[in-house]
Specification:
alpha+beta; SH3 type barrels; seven-stranded mixed sheet; 7 strands; 30% strand; globular; disordered N terminus
Amino acid sequence: MIINEFRNHHLIRDLVTRFRRCVSKSYMRCCIDVYMSGITDWDDIKKKEARGIDDYDLGEVHDLDAEVVVTKRGVVDKDKFYLPKNKVVRYDGHKIWFNVTKDEAKAFKKD
């Protein structure tokens, strides 16, 4: 128990240190995105496979803007998902994972 609290303390301290280095709100948002997902160049995720919790298929990354990742799924009936960047939890160079369940994904789905 004490070891976990000690580790968490270091993680929080590291995160606070990174925030102090940020000079504006937009740069702070960038710091959070990079720290949480490991993505340094968001253009690298274009055309990559997107997955949610329990390996739920969110399609392929099609487009990006400042705060949203747009994915498309399907061949004939294409589903489009507009997923917030702050839902990204991991990127390994091939796939990008979002902290989104199948049910939550419905809220991000638009035609």
